[in-house]
Specification:
heterodimer; A: about 375 residues; alpha+beta; OB fold (Dihydrolipoamide Acetyltransferase, E2P); six-stranded mixed beta sheet; five-stranded antiparallel beta sheet; about 25% helix; elongated; B: about 325 residues; mainly alpha; MetI-like fold; about 0% strand; flat
């Protein structure tokens, strides 16, 4: 089912939880709503579920406006962060509940419950109560309950946040595979970018009730539209440095307080032009910086601290008043106080307008 | 481990546990002490005194003449007891239905269906008003409302609306009047307790149910009622016990009349003791009442599955470990 939200607004008193949101989710697509807490992503999900009614705008399932359709008539499956399994019902009764409400014959219900329980590998738990099974099992029961009535739309509200780290990684793959198998349109709310990047076809990033960007994980990572996206997507986050913009022929030079970087011509051309000496923001990810020999067109700084991350090291470098994070290999041997030269991967330098935070990348 | 060893181990742990229990009791004594003292003084001592008194033929002379079980024999042979017991059962069952049933209805109506917080509060406050009224005033209001003359509130309303003749409600329907008057005042307590319980159900359950396809009625049946099992049980037991022993509204409205038609056991005991000055016999009736109430409470706790409610939610850890598959 294709889901469209058009200029949707939701207010709570004077607070605009969702502000003029427009979004189209294609049939069978897996979309993540990503954003910090309080950004309106759960409110958006609850509007899709029909639990909240939008104050303005339209929610459209295929060609039908569903603003006034009750949740029970929308044929959606939903999985909650708390799982919301009814504690007084056994696992079997929990899974069967949506079908029981549809008043299907008992034989059909039993058969379907057995079928889906086999799929989720929970057959041995059917007679137990939710309080008697583990978190991962509860998660699968909740998914089974959401999917048993073969909904047109699956809504997942932070489904993995109550699981421990190991289980979370395996459930991530499990849910993604299941979604592709069933081909069911899915909206997934999360504040964890790793989940969003690893599971979804497209990510809609929200902040303060507004949609910041929607795109594939690669798009958002490689070509962030603004500083919010650039800083939000990617871990460790992107470094931002305020610089002066100087145009010399076809070459752009970025003048910081303690460094000067000239971008190659072919890179310079990919950015829109600015006035000379205008203040802009340069962004570069820790993984696109490296430590090397003293050379022109590098940034000189002093190591502030070195963090071990297991497979690599995160080096915090002090450049004047700024701090730059650099991801290096495990073999890096710099110590606190050492002077280092940072080499930039020019292809991955981002420039942003200092005033509105929008990317200066030319749209191809 | 052999079976014998297991048994010995069990014994030893049980003994250790009981020692631990004694120590814990003494540690808790300073905290429990004052309340234990009050409970003994105001609950246990009266029960013992009543029971002792029931073995005497005490009358207005207030002399402790022990007569054995004579009072109890008299009780089971008394011809009015049959009517009084029947009245008590009727009174308790019907009042309970209004108390708990209507209380539940009000709680659902005000906490689930009315989403506006101020409106909810206004309705609940209105239902709380009789609670705050002194019993004598409340009973007096009923007497005015049911006044047998044409000027009585109910009579004049019915006359204006349907042209019905005035009638003496208390004389014609003493039991019904008593039940309705008591039932309505009791609903507010159940309403408050149930409302609080409904408010404490995590909102995700309501959302999950509505997404699963539940109508409002389904939500009430499959979510609210099961979550309110414990409060409903508590209110039922509480109200049953307080109804069995309460008589003040009956005393004030009908005084058990006409001719025992609204006389219940507790009021019967009161009448025997304080109208006829047969303290011994009155005490015997009270004793029967206490024994009956205790038996009833135990039976009700069993029927409602008190243990099961208290025990549920413990994870069966050992078996769980074997089954985590991903």
């Amino acid at each position: 089912m294709e889901v469209t939200m058009m200029n949707v607004v939701k207010r709570f008193g004077n607070f605009k939880a969702v502000d003029n949101l427009s979004l189209t989710i294609k049939d069978g697509e897996f979309v993540a709503l990503l954003g910090p807490s309080g950004c309106g992503k759960t409110t958006t999900l609850l509007m899709l579920a029909g639990i909240y009614k939008p104050d303005a705008g339209e929610i459209i399932f295929d060609d039908k406006i569903v603003n006034d359709v009750l949740p029970k008539d929308r044929n959606i499956g939903m999985c909650f962060q708390s799982y919301a399994l009814y504690p007084h019902m056994t696992v079997e009764q929990n899974i069967a509940f949506p079908l029981k409400l549809k008043k299907l014959p008992k034989k059909v219900i039993d058969e379907k419950v057995r079928e889906i329980a086999a799929k989720f590998r929970i057959e041995h738990l059917l007679k137990r109560y939710p309080g008697q099974i583990s978190g991962g099992q509860q998660q699968r029961v909740a998914l089974a309950r959401a999917l048993i009535k073969e909904p047109n739309l699956l809504l997942l509200d932070e489904p993995l946040s109550n699981l421990d780290a190991g289980l979370r990684i395996s459930m991530r793959a499990e849910i993604k595979k299941l979604q592709k198998e069933l081909g069911i349109t899915t909206v997934f709310v999360t504040h964890d970018q790793t989940e969003a990047l690893s599971m979804s076809d497209r990510i809609a990033v929200m902040n303060k009730g507004k949609l910041q960007a929607i795109g594939t994980p690669e798009d958002l990572y490689m070509r962030p539209k603004n500083m919010f996206i650039a800083g939000f997507i990617g871990n460790p986050p992107m470094n931002f440095l305020e610089v002066g913009y100087i145009m010399d022929g076809d070459r752009v030079t970025l003048k910081g307080k303690n460094f000067e970087i000239s971008l190659p011509e072919e890179i310079s051309r990919t950015f829109i032009k600015k006035q000379n000496n205008e203040r802009i923001v340069m962004g570069i990810r820790p993984e696109h910086l490296s430590v090397g020999a003293e050379a022109p067109n590098t940034i000189k700084g002093e190591i502030y601290v070195v963090e071990h991350l297991g497979k690599d090291k995160l080096v915090d470098v002090k450049v004047g008043d700024d701090r730059i994070k650099v991801l290096t290999g495990q073999d890096f041997e710099g110590k606190m106080g050492d002077t280092v030269n940072l080499h930039l991967d020019f292809k991955n330098v981002h420039l942003f307008d200092a005033a509105d935070g929008n990317s200066m990348k030319r749209v191809a | 481990m052999s079976e014998l060893e297991a048994k010995i181990l069990e014994r030893v742990t049980a003994k250790k546990a009981s020692m631990e229990g004694v120590r814990k009791f003494f540690t808790a004594l300073p905290f429990l002490g004052p309340f234990l003292f009050l409970i003994i003084l105001f609950y246990l001592v009266p029960v013992i005194l009543t029971f002792t008194m029931s073995l005497t033929s005490m009358d207005y002379a207030l002399e402790w003449n022990f007569v054995g079980l004579k009072n109890f024999v008299r009780f089971f042979q008394d011809s009015s007891v049959k009517i009084v017991v029947l009245n008590t059962v009727k009174y308790v069952v019907y009042t309970l239905m209004i108390n708990v049933g209507f209380g539940f209805f009000l709680a659902v109506a005000t906490s689930y269906f009315i989403k506006n917080e101020n409106l909810r509060l206004a309705f609940q406050t209105i239902w709380m008003l009789p609670r705050m009224t002194p019993p004598v005033v409340y009973a007096l209001l009923w007497l005015w409302f049911l006044d047998p003359t044409e000027a009585g509130t109910l009579n004049s309303v019915l006359h204006k609306l349907f042209g019905l003749p005035a009638q003496n409600w208390i004389l014609n329907h003493p039991m019904k009047v008593v039940i309705v008057a008591n039932g309505l005042i009791g609903t507010s307590l159940a309403m408050v307790v149930f409302s609080a319980a409904i408010k404490s159900i995590p909102v995700d359950y309501f959302r999950a149910a509505s997404v699963d396809g539940a109508s409002d009625w389904d939500v009430v049946r499959h979510v609210i009622v099961p979550f309110l099992k414990w409060p409903i049980m508590f209110m039922t037991i509480w109200q049953t016990l307080s109804l069995i022993t309460s008589y003040e509204y009956i005393l004030l409205i009908t005084d058990g009349g006409p001719l025992n038609r609204s006389e219940v056991l507790s009021l019967f005991s009161y009448h025997k003791a304080f109208s006829n000055y047969e303290f011994g016999y009155g005490a015997a009736i009270s004793t029967v009442l206490v024994i009956f109430a205790v038996i009833l409470a135990v039976v009700m706790l069993k029927v409602f599955g008190y243990d099961a409610i208290m025990m549920r939610g413990e994870i069966d850890e050992k078996r769980d470990k074997d089954h985590i598959s991903f």
